[in-house]
Design a protein that fits this description.
Length: 235
């Protein structure tokens, strides 16, 4: 029983690289169980015994059930759908020595920073584009090894194993390619989204660990996964 439940958790984490994806996945799972999707733009007609779900800003979700009989108590469970990560800043390209491009990012949430080094990282989130004169939100998960935050070789920092404070503005910026193009990342978005450059109005994109969640141990006693804080409480 616990193994199957844990498999569902790992599958949920894999499908939820950002809070936006987590909310979408939770809504999909709830609707499969018979929950009715509500919109804040419409008048609600709730009935006893009904199960409902509503989202806001694609980053928050509320699911609730109406009791069939009159009740004077509430049972409430709350959690957050976001996880510590690196968010990509606006105009993020930093061209270094006209040879390669780093992305300017900001640390989001309380995180362990050292585990982000030398791992395959991808990008997910949402992009706001102009289409037919209207604004359109696109949820994206490129699901490829796109960037990496490399460690220095040991001979360039002999003291690293004695404990070193990391500078998030200089040592934790991911490398994304060999180029001297100041729009290198923007051009990537244009190609992936099949839109014009001027039609990309804004984005909220996050770097995430591409390694998939796994069971660990001689008898699968443990799990290894990113974003356990706090997706384990959302699944």
């Amino acid at each position: 029983m616990y193994y199957e439940t844990t498999k569902e958790l790992l599958d949920f984490i894999k499908k939820s690289p950002t809070a936006f994806h987590a909310v979408e996945e939770m809504q999909n799972r709830l609707t499969e169980k018979g929950f009715q999707v509500l919109s804040e733009k419409e008048h609600w007609k709730l009935v006893p015994g009904g199960n409902y779900v509503v989202t806001r800003n694609h980053s928050a979700l509320i699911a609730f059930s109406i009791p069939e009989k009159e009740s004077w108590k509430f049972h409430i469970i709350a959690s957050h759908s976001d996880s510590p990560s690196f968010k990509i800043k606006e105009n993020p390209e930093i061209v270094v020595e006209k040879k390669y491009v780093k992305l300017n990012v900001e640390k989001y949430g309380g995180m362990l920073m050292a585990p982000w080094f030398d791992r395959p990282l991808s990008i997910a989130g949402r992009v706001i584009v102009r289409k037919d004169g209207k604004l359109e939100e696109r949820l994206v998960n490129f699901d490829r090894d796109l960037v990496m935050i490399p460690n220095l070789a040991i001979h360039m920092n002999r003291e690293v194993n004695k404990g070193v404070e990391l500078n998030k503005q200089t040592e934790l910026l991911p490398i994304c390619g060999l180029s001297d193009d100041a729009d290198y990342f923007l051009d990537f978005l244009v190609k992936e989204l099949a839109v014009k450059k001027e039609d990309i109005l804004d984005f909220e994109l996050t770097i995430y660990n591409k390694e998939k969640p796994e069971f660990v141990g001689l008898n699968d006693e443990f799990i290894s996964a990113s974003r356990l804080d706090n997706l384990n409480s959302c699944s």
